[in-house]
Amino acid sequence: QVQLVESGGGLVQAGGSLRLSCAASGRTISGLSMGWFRQAPGKEREEVAMHYWSSSNPWYAESVKGRFTFSRDIAKNTVYLQMNSLKSEDTAVYFCAMKAINTPWSRGSWGQGTQVTVSS
Q1: How far is CA 60 from the centre of its chain?
Q2: How confident is the model at residue 101 (pLDDT cuts 50, 70, 90)?
Q3: Cβ(92)–Cβ(81) under 8 Å?
């Protein structure tokens, strides 16, 4: 059974940094697409960053481009989201997800989420 566990969230002041981790178990992240999503109160879930195994570079939402960095460590079966220059609008629950090629994210595996709160 695939399990994704996010960690690293917390409370940070605007301009600060956090590093989120997503540890996978039950299946290797090698060969799979991995993504970070977030959902703020009263808003729909949105894509933040993702890496398709077939692509060399991660994709980023315009709102986080230049501030967030996606990375994956195959040996640790973990993906990360380094978040710098945080803004109050980055406040949300952050989720990681895993999916196979030609599978929609909605049918992939999801973690339980980690809260990120940015105070202004």
Answers
A1: 10
A2: confident
A3: no
